[in-house]
Structure formats: C-alpha cells, structure tokens
Amino acid sequence: MAKILIVEDEAIIRSALKRLLERHDYHVSEAGSVEACAPIELHGFDLIISDLRLPGEPGTALIERAAPVPVLIMTSYASMRSAVESLKQGAVDYVAKPFDHAELVETVARILHQQSMQKSEPPNVTDERGGRQTMIGDCAGMQQVYTRIRKTAPADVTVLIQGESGTGKELVARAIHQQSQRVKAPLICVNCAAIPETLIESELFGHEKGAFTGASAARTGLVEAADGGTLFLDEIGELPLDAQARLLRVLQEGEIRKIGSVETRHVNVRLIAATHRDLRALSKSGEFRLDLYYRLNVMQIDLPPLRERGDDVLEIADILLEKACKRHHREGLRLSRAARQDLRDYPWPGNVRELENALERGVILAEGHLIHPDDLGLAPTATRPKPSAPAPTVESGDDPAEGDLSLEDYFQHFVLEHQDHMSETELAQKLGISRKNLWERRQRLGIPRKKTARRPS
Length: 457
Known about the structure:
Blueprint: E1 3-7, H1 11-23, E2 27-31, E3 47-51, H2 61-66, E4 71-75, H3 80-88, E5 93-96, H4 101-118, E6 124-126, E7 132-134, H5 140-152, E8 159-162, H6 169-178, E9 187-191, H7 200-205, H8 222-225, E10 230-234, H9 241-253, E11 255-256, E12 265-266, E13 270-275, H10 279-284, H11 290-296, E14 299-302, H12 312-327, E15 334-335, H13 337-345, H14 351-365, E16 370-371, H15 373-376, H16 405-418, H17 424-431, H18 435-445
Parallel strand pairs: 1-2, 1-3, 3-4, 4-5, 8-13, 8-14, 9-10, 10-13, 15-16
Antiparallel strand pairs: 6-7, 11-12
C-alpha cells in the first residue's frame, strides 16, 4: 500500500483529499504546513501532495528536503507562471484547485506507477569465490546508491566510493565492474592500508631485478596486472605521497614505470577508489594530493552507515543469520523479539561487518531455539527499560502490547522447546490459553506448527 503525505493548511480540503485517497487504498498522513513536517520522516512516503501557498514556507520547500520522494504541487492560483516555476524547482507535476477528483486520482496513480518503474533494483554481485549475492536494502540512501551504480558503471570514468568502515565499499566496486564494459577483464582489489609503506610502490607499479635490496627478480605491478580491466584501491587515503604522485601519472597519461626502470609502459585501467576518510581535509593538511583528489572524484558514491538504514538492518540480519546457522550446523535458530529490537536500535559503529560478528556470536552462544540479547554481546548503548520477568502463564484473551517483549519471548521459547513432545492441546493447557489463541499467536509470530506422529490409542 503506497504511503502519501498531504500538506494543506485548510482542514476541510485536507480531510476531503485524505478520504478520497483512502477510498482508493492509499495510506494517508497529513500536516498543515512545511514546519509541521519537521518531525516526520519524509523519505518514508511514496508521494507528497502539497499546497503551494502555506503559512510560513511554500510547499516547494519540500521538494529538496524530501528528495528523491516526488512532490505534487497544488494551488488555487492556476497561473501558468506558478505551474512552470514549481516544475522548474523539481515538482513532479502540478494540479490546480478546485481539482477534479477522478483526474487527481489518475495523476497520483500515474506518478506512483512511474516511481515504481524507476526504482532501482539491487545489483547482483559475484564475489571473489565466484558466488552470487545481491546487495541488500531498500532505504532511500541505498536506492540512490543503486541508481548511481547503474548510471556510472557503463560510463568508464573514475569513481570515488566514500563510506564508513564495514559499509560494503568493495561490494559496490565489484557491482560497478560487473556492470561495466570491462566485465570480461580482471578486477584487481588492493587494500592500501594492508601493505607496508616501504612495499606499496613495488606492489602497485612493479620493480626490476636489483632495483632494491631483496629484489632478486623482476615483478609486474598490480596496476599493470589490471590492464584492460578495473583497479580497486581500498583505503586510498593511506597511500603514501610518493605513490600518490605515481598514481596521478597513471590517471593523467595512462603510463607506469617500474621501480628501477627507465622505460614507461602504457596501461588502460579504470580506477575505483574507496575511503572512510575526508580526502579534501587530508589535502589541506598536506597528507593527500589535491590534484589527485580531483582526478579521483569524477563520480562519487556515498554509502550510508547502517544506523541510517532503518529496517534494512533486520533484513540484512536475517540473511546473515541464515548463513551463520548453516556454517555452524544450527539451522532453525531464530532471533527473539528483544534481540531484534536491540539490533534495530544499536548504532553499529562497525556497520555490516560488526552486525555479522554479533550474529556469529549469537549462533554460537544460543542454548535453545532463540537468540537472546545477551547472546549477541553488543556493547551497551543508551539506557533502555529492561523487560519484566516472564510470566509463568498467559491468560486467555490476553493480547500483549508490542513493547511487552518478555511475554512474547516466553511464548516463543516455550512453544519451540516443547512442541516436539507435546500436542497442541497440551501446549495450550500449559500456557493457560485456548487452542484457537495458540494458533493465532503462532500465525502472528511466524512459528509453524510441527507435524507429529499420532499417539497409539
């Protein structure tokens, strides 16, 4: 169901429009001004319908704030000037009040259909072992990443990927390479922070025999090995200044010269660089060449940290948990409600890599069928109210609130622990609920009923 936000200061019009859209199965929220939208997460909507003339800021102020969510502008001042001006500022369309109901509904349906067609699909990526995986996430930040990958990959330009450690920068680089015209050529990945400073020039550009102590044979550098393909330099902010000067020559002239050689060789390499550091700030302090920064930053892709990706956290967690369960032969493990809430609320300074480690710990330490918060071993963050001790029974007809985690966890734990040797009737009796209530709770919590053999009469 599409989510629509109506921003209109006249309550009568706002209510009528809300009822109209709800009759067509849209989920509708409302606000009376741009300022009233401040506490609202605008990126959670599929469409914003706003009056042009509002108290305070005009409706067009929402266009930039809500991007890439489309904004449909409506106004009673049906002049061509205001229509064109709204469209110039980025409005997806324009309707004049009083509007025809059928026409408005048709316009909304058309915009939402266009948006769904334009929504970028997560790219499939082949990892270094040849396995296929799909990039995960549907938040607005990741949608922008997918769009940028799709548009940038065929263009054969230098790309700078920026993001915190553990956000998946190498995965983006692989996606760009595999959607580029160089897909049949090699992708060479180098972590600049993992190579000693004294060796990095030799690793990247190669050396001749006898060029330095220990150079007992000539060696081809990784830049030359990537000739015709893609070179991915991770943590490029750690590259020494001498190596930066050599890399700049590769980007400007397509030339490399091995250490100890007087000959230059031409290479045709597409460079993708990644960093978690601010290269512009490093250039001001003299740690990174400004001219190299400008050469690298032809196209920039910003990866959002995990803490800003909303429900993507739980989607990623479910996939990582399934993989961890297979590795440790513990299929069937599930995250408790409290554990899922902790995963959702945790700030994840180590991003996806830290999430993967937490789930690995959970799979190893869990003693029953459920992974609880203590099994994850997350560092304490903001103080949260602790759940009360689990009740021994659940009264018939009880419907615990969404935040009452311990009661739901107790139900999950009890059913999963005992359903193999108890009938549905016995389970319901022990829990103090009816069989119907037991079935309803199974459906809500996603706990399938186990089929057991009939007992001998």
